[in-house]
Amino acid sequence: MSNKDCSFLPLLPLAIWTCCCLRQAAVGLENGLARTPPMGWMPFERFRCVTDCVQFPNDCISEALFKRTADLLVSEGYGALGYEYLIIDDCWMEPNRDAVTQKLVPHRTRFPGGMKALSNYIHDKGLKFGLYHDIGERTCMSLGPGAFGHFALDAQTFADWGVDYVKLDGCYADHMDFDLAYPEFGWALNKTGRPMVYSCSWPFYINKPNYERIKKHCNLWRFAEDVRDSHRSIFRIMQKYYTQQHTLVQSGGPGHWNDPDMLVLGNYLMSYDASRLQLAMWAVLAAPLIMSNDLQTVRPEIKKLLQNRAIIEVDQDPLGIPGESVYTLGNLQVWRRPIQPINNLGLHSYALAFVVLGDYFPCPLCPQTFEVVLEKLGLNNIMGYSVHDLFNISDELGIYKANDKFQTRINPQGVTFYKFKAQDFY
Ligand SMILES: *[C@@H]1O[C@H](CO)[C@@H](O)[C@H](O)[C@H]1NC(C)=O
Ligand SMILES: *[C@@H]1O[C@H](CO)[C@@H](O)[C@H](O)[C@H]1NC(C)=O
C-alpha cells in the first residue's frame, strides 16, 4: 500500500494504519521544502486578532497590513537575508464558508481583493505566501471555520491561491485523533501537487507526542506554548526544550524542524539583552526565524540584530543539527550547536551560547563572568578552534585549544554567542 492509499485512514483500525502507512519509513517529511529552517514574518504575537480597521487602521489584520509588510520586507533588506515567507495568521476569514461551493472566504472588507490577488502581490515582490488554518471545527480565535470535514477542498483552495506555506492550528478539535488527522491533511496538501511547507501545531496539543511520527508528516511543529513579548516567555520555551532536548535533537533536521514559535524582538517589552538572547537561542535550536513585529517601527539596534548575517548563517547551517544544553553550573548554562565547517579530522565547528538562568546571588543585576575549560563542553579538537563573537564577527578572539579556559561575561537576561571554528590537522 502506498503513502497515497492512506487517504481513507480515519476508517482504518490503528494496527493496519501503522503497518501499511508508516512503512515508507522515510527519515522525515520529504517534500523537498524547508531544507533549512523557514524564515519570514507572521503577525500574531504583535497584531493578535485586531479586526477594527476603522479605529486601528495600522494594526488590523488586513490586506493593507500584509502589503505594507511585503514592501518593508523587501525595502528594509530582510527578504534578501532569507526572511521570505509572509504568513497570514488567524482572523483572515469570513465567519462561514461559501454557501454554494463550501470554500473558505477571506473577510470581505479587510481583504477586499481576495487571496489570489494578495498572493500575486507577495509573489511579485519575490516573497512567498503563507496562510493559517485550523484542523478542527473553528479557528483558534473562532472567527472562521476550521478544516474539519473539508481537508481536500481546503488544501485545493490553498493551492489555487498560490499558498507556499500552511500553518495548521489545532483548536476546536477535542474529538479528533491528531495522530491521524495531521497526516491526513498533509496528504491532502500533497495531492494538490503544489509544494507547500506544512507547519503543524500537533505536538503542542497532545500529551506524549510521538516525534518519530510527527517528523514524517510535518516540515515544522510547535512543541511549546505561544511565545509572548517577554524574557520570561523566552526563558520558559528554552526550559521546555531543555526538558525534552534528547528527543527534540533527534527530531529536527533538513525538512523537519522543532518550532519554538515567533521571534518577538522589536516589540515592547524585551530589553536589548533579552532580544540578543532570543535570537542566539533560536539559532542554536535550528529554529524557524519568523518575526512578529511592526517592521515600520523596529528600532535600529534591533533591526541590526535581526539582520546579523553571522547568526542567520548559524541558524541556516546546512548540516541542520539542532543544538542542546551541554553544561550547567549554578545559574549559568552553555548551549552548543554543531555546525560547518567540519575539519580534516571529521570534527565539527560549534556555535556556543552562554546564558544566565536566574538571579546571580551577590548581585542580581550585574554582568556575570564565567570561565570553563573547552573540553568540558565537548570541544576536544587537539588543533583547537578559532573563536569569533557572533554578535560582532570582526571580533577575532584567537585560537583556543581543548584544554584552554574560555572566559566570557554575560549581561543580566543576556547571552554571549561565539563561533568556534575547528582548525585543521596540520
Ligand atoms: C508528495 O509526496 C511525495 C512522496 O513523499 C514527494 O516525493 C512529493 O514531493 C510530494 N509532493 C508535494 C507536492 O508535496
Ligand atoms: C567589534 O569588534 C572589533 C574588533 O575587536 C572592535 O574594534 C569593535 O569595537 C567591535 N564593535 C562593537 C560594536 O562592539
From TrEMBL:
GO process annotations (BP): glycoside catabolic process; oligosaccharide metabolic process
InterPro entries (alphabetical): Aldolase_TIM, GH, Glyco_hydro_27, Glyco_hydro_27/36_CS, Glyco_hydro_b
Cited CDD domains: GH27
An MF annotation (GO) of this entry: alpha-galactosidase activity
PROSITE patterns from the UniProt entry: ALPHA_GALACTOSIDASE
The EC number(s) this enzyme carries: 3.2.1.-
Keyword line: Disulfide bond, Glycosidase, Hydrolase, Signal
The keyword Disulfide bond is annotated on this UniProt entry: yes
Signal peptide: 1-28
Subunit structure: Homodimer.
Protein name: Alpha-galactosidase
